[in-house]
């Protein structure tokens, strides 16, 4: 396998080697090949009538080429083929063929180079076998024996290193493919974990927003009525003690109802925190994100099912009437069951609108209209202008989130929300929600 010199240097090895031990191995092979070719060069020089020094020098130079086998494997094999007629370079040819077959050189180049090496070895082997047989006086050998022996000898010297190199190269590429696949899977798992964490953060944010709306509705409405009744107690305590006692009892009832609803919501929060803590101690980050998102979704769904509904609307209006507000209810169409989130949102819109009347238009009357239509349910709360001097009798603070919360609730279900002042000086809140079918409690169970 061949790579660029910069990549190898970055890996810690000198020049084109990946590791120092690879450089030491190639240096040792080159030294052994140079010594072998130097010894064989002596016989070649004597047979060719050349000075022995030239033969030794030629062998040393040719054998030393093995040091660049990882960088230029084709060149190493070509040098081995070139010195084959001189009967030098057995180690050079063997290691060169193995390196070439194990590298990423195109297969056709490997095939052509291997064929050239096989042909050169076959020719030299055939010539040396013929000369050796000719030296034996009176020997009688069949015609096919010499070619057969030459072919077997050349194949025996060429095929093993090539086959071994092909096997090692294929195994190396397989390991690299598996390593790349493992890296890609790890990256994908990290992305999934990040996305799961983002979904969990989003779910937690949605759950915090929902709980904030619920607490605002509970606290704003109940406490507003409590303040109104407390003001009424203060006003009539001396004039009408029985009415004062009745108003004080209403304040106590509303306070207990507010505490009950707050405890329910805080219980949902504690359950969600306990689930998140137990999950984080048992599963990886991705599963934590998914479990947190699922827990938040289940908590939201459970709160929607356990929340108020349109069937409790009359009780809600009764609380406002008990606080001294004149409230009229008008219902159109035939009442039917809706999805829990639709029922709860409709109830909260009416509740928040009446709370705003208590806050900003104390003493004014209100009209609540509820219409059951095909495919939707509509509600409208309209109050008249507050009487002179009665608008701030209760001294109720306002956080400015009531209308924003109502709009978010309605739009989250795909509905329409409109609010604004009337020509008569009052205020009107209108909302239309799609009539989603009620889902049975056992839906989704396998």
Overview of this protein structure:
It comes from Streptomyces odorifer. This protein has 446 residues and is α+β, with helices and mostly antiparallel strands. Among the domains are: 5-141, no CATH class; 310-446, Heat Shock Protein 90, CATH 3.30.565. The protein contains twelve helices and five strands. It has a five-stranded mixed β-sheet with strand order 1-2-3-5-4, with helices on one face. A hairpin with a 2-residue loop joins strand 2 (366-373) and strand 3 (376-383). Helix 4 packs antiparallel against helix 5, helix 4 (73-82) runs parallel beside helix 6 (107-134) and helix 7 (145-236) packs antiparallel against helix 8 (241-280). The longest helix is centred in the middle third of the chain and has 92 residues, at 145-236. The two termini are 55 Å apart.
Q: What brief labels describe this structure?
A:
single chain, 446 residues, alpha+beta, Heat Shock Protein 90, five-stranded mixed sheet, 12 helices, 5 strands, 66% helix, 8% strand, rod-shaped, disordered N terminus, disordered C terminus
The gyration radius over C-alpha positions equals 47 Å
Number of strands: 5
Report helical residue fraction: 55-70%
Query: What order do the SSEs take from the amino end to the carboxyl end, as H and E?
Result: HHHHHHHHHHEHEEHEE
Low-confidence stretches: 1-11, 278-297, 437-446
Q: Largest sheet, described in full?
A: 5 strands, mixed
- Helices, by number, come to 12
Oligomer: single chain
* Separation of the first and last Cα atoms: 55 Å
Shape from CA axes? rod-shaped
Q: Widest sheet: strand order?
A: 1-2-3-5-4
| Class derived from helix and strand content | alpha+beta
Q: Beta fraction of the residues? A: 5-15%
Mean pLDDT: 78
